[in-house]
Write the structure tokens for this entry.
Amino acid sequence: MATLLIVDDDNTIRETLAELLSGSNECHTADRAEQALAYLEVENYDVVLTDISMPGLSGREILKRVQENHPATPVIVISGESNDEAAAELLAMGAFAYLSKPFQLAVVEDTVVRAIARRQEIRTSPRRDNSNGASTAEGNGPAAADSPVREESPEPT
């Protein structure tokens, strides 16, 4: 069972995603970035889903911190704006996927399944450590074979 962190200041979105994904995953939720960052200090998550625009720190800060401290953890960014430039920037920063609101729940489920698979792949595929030739199971973000994607959904579900 994968452990997910869902971060959104909108209670309806946060609870909908938790309900959708909790059938086959353990879901933790946070209503602000500061709370999510505190959770990330004590828990290793398989996938982080975060809204980008929240009061206080933004989802960008969560993405940045996950990339720095947990580079093998995929981050799915959710945004209320459909902005090609912002999506490209977030994907370049290392986001696994960019989902625009309103989104279809099936698209979210599929994206999370792919992110979990990517995390499992990173955990099980050894990579060379250049310092001593030893293999490690930790990776650095999404691989080219499963490149980041931007998902948009014209109709809410």
